[in-house]
Structure formats: C-alpha cells, structure tokens
Amino acid sequence: MDVGTTVYQGDTALGVVEEFVHLRLVSSRERSPERDEEVASKVRERIADEVRRPGFLAVTARIGSRLCGFGTAVRSADPAPDHPALGARRSQEWLAGAVRITDLVVAPAARGRGVGTGILDVLLLPAMDDRAWAVTDHQDTAALNFFRCRGWRQTVYPQPGAHPAQIVLLAPRHPALSEIPVLP
C-alpha cells in the first residue's frame, strides 16, 4: 500500500477542509444526521480559526486519490491559557509555545497500517524542542492507546470515581516528563 502525504500550511488547508469533515464523519462512532451536522460545523469553524494561528500545519494521507487520514497542529499561545486539568503553573511550563496536535483521524479501513503514525511524525517536525501535546477524551480508548503505544504520557490521572472530560498527553521526549509519575 503506497500512502502519500501532503503538507498544508496556513489557509491552504481550507481547500481540503470538506474532505476533513467527510473523513471525520465517516470515522465517527456516533452516527445521526443532527450529530453529523454539529460535528461538521465545529470542524469547519475550528479549522477556519486555526489556519490563522502561528504554526498551523495540516497533513493529509492518501492512497491514490482517496483521503485515508489527516491531522492538524498549531503552536500553543505563549503565555498559555490555563488548562483546567493542569492549572496555571503547569499550563505555562508544559504547554506555552509547544506544538498541539488538534486532529488526527484515520479512515477505519486504513487503521493499523502506519497511516496515523506517519501523519503524527510530520506534525511533530516543528516541535524541534520536543515540546508537543495532545488532548483526548478520557473515553476515547483508541486515541489513548494510539498515543500511549508511541510513548506519549498522560499528565493527569483521575481519582477513583472521577472522570475528567479531557486527558492531556505529552510527547515522548517532552522536557516535563521527568515531573510525571509513571503509573501502571
């Protein structure tokens, strides 16, 4: 299987945003017309906003002419706004100016074939200082497993019975990893 990648910087990604939306919907587990339109609208709005931010990068993966994956990343603000799971000090130290992975979607038929890893590798190229992070829902076990299998580390571990909506993950060589305990 020959997978080709294309990199889009800034607003050049707007030309393929409808393909992003379509793949996001195809890859979604929740399928309803109302939910689809809500997701589509949010993806369009978020990407239209992100393309104007410094360091925006989008990557597509294709087999022939068919889109089989895409990812986006932006450079976090510096100073960083407080992330509710981390607090002010850690948000600033860990996230300010770091590359944030904002999307990583692979078509169901292309999963397990290195497409996601290839996209992630390209998105991480601007993180020359190894400072990169991602956020995923605590119930998205596929995303959590994907990042964990690539050495990414969860920063906050919920107390028994508590369920944070989001999990912040740091890239494998992020300088802050020395502060995070390794839990089974």
Short structural summary:
The chain is an alpha+beta fold and 184 residues long. It has helices at residues 17-27, 33-50, 87-95, 115-123, 141-149; strands at residues 3-9, 57-63, 66-75, 99-106, 132-137, 153-154, 166-170.
Question: What structural category characterises the helix and strand content?
Answer: alpha+beta
Helix percent reads 25-40%
Number of helices: 5
Mind describing the biggest β-sheet? 7 strands, mixed
Number of strands: 7
Element order, helices and strands?
Answer: EHHEEHEHEHEE
Query: What average pLDDT do the residues reach?
Result: 87
Biggest sheet: strands side by side, in what order?
A: 1-2-3-4-5-7-6
Oligomeric status of the shown chains? Answer: single chain
Q: Give unreliable regions as ranges.
A: none
Terminal residue distance: 36 Å
Beta-strand residue percentage: 15-25%
Globular, elongated, flat, extended or rod-shaped: what is the shape?
A: globular
Radius of gyration: 16 Å
List the helices and strands and how they pair.
Layout: E1 3-9, H1 17-27, H2 33-50, E2 57-63, E3 66-75, H3 87-95, E4 99-106, H4 115-123, E5 132-137, H5 141-149, E6 153-154, E7 166-170
Parallel strand pairs: 4-5
Antiparallel strand pairs: 1-2, 2-3, 3-4, 5-7, 6-7
Question: What would you note in describing this structure?
Answer:
With 184 residues, this protein is α+β, with helices and mostly antiparallel strands. Helix content is 30%, strand content 24%. The chain has five helices and seven strands, in the order βααββαβαβαββ. A seven-stranded mixed beta sheet has the order 1-2-3-4-5-7-6, sandwiched between helices. A hairpin with a 2-residue loop joins β2 and β3. α1 (17-27) crosses α2. The radius of gyration is 16 Å and the shape is globular. The N and C termini lie far apart (36 Å).
